[in-house]
Task: structure prediction
Amino acid sequence: MLKHWKTRLCAFAAAIGLMAAQPVKAEEISVTHWGVLMYGAPYAVAMDKGFFKKAGIDITGILTSKGGGTTMRNVLAGGLPYGEVALSAVLAAAREGVDVRVVNSGAQSVNEILWVTMPNSPIKGVQDLAGRKMSITSPKSVTDMVSIMVLEKSGIPLDKVERPALGGIGAGLTALESGAVDAAAIMDPIWAARKAKYRPVFFTKDILPPMTQTVGVTTAEFAKAHPDKLRAIIAGRRMGVDFIYANPKEAAQIFAREYNLKPDVAETAIRNMVEIKYWSLGGFDINGMNEFVRGLRIIGEVQGEVDWNKLLDRSFLPADLRSGS
Result:
């Protein structure tokens, strides 16, 4: 009998050893504007520092897009249906009947956005934009929404400022340099790379309250089938955010490598985001989400109220982040 149990124990130990030796399956997730804008920095750090593996999942690659519905479609079509996407894209998917779940928050601010002018311009602030042109990227974009909210907050009638949609940040800056517009939208890390060429007209952070810009989303089916994977992704990203806030210089070096940026540009951009607490640890700020939705209503992307109880699932968050305002 003793020999029999020893044989079974040896077999059990061997099986455990084999399981431990097997690597965690490599996975890819989606992050809007990966490699271009600041949303992806925590994921870059988490992959480089091994935080995802420590949390129990091996994230080895990021799928990306130019944002909006494209990133949402990546999430729905990808092998691992999780992504950090614009809150507006999630609400649009839900309106179309897609059964999605918002499981964490991402960028908790739009304060990376500012408008700039040329150094010799007479424009000194928002009030000077009356009767002039300020560019946006596209209709119903975040820059469209934010520009309207800034003008309204500053008491400037919308019909007093022309806001041409020029298709991208680069196109707006080209128009600014040629004199076709008087102010153009810009954001990090582009601002960090080009700040010597322009003068700020206003920073969004000085005018608008916090608002949640991106969130982590998945399908209801995946949430039910793979809760451990979601918890691991959220935990790994959180470790990435904590590391950035505690070690901005080293985080910037990782960010520079992943985004192919000059180290000084990456560090400036990272420190700019640290200053405004750009990245959420993952918990939900309902006030910030409602403020973003208010902006979406302004540009006609949302009608009526949003029932957060149907969309949010806090069960994948660490216990200390589950209570939301």
In short: The chain has two domains: 25-109+211-321, 113-206. Confidence is low (pLDDT under 50) at residues 1-23. The first strand starts at residue 26 and ends at 31.
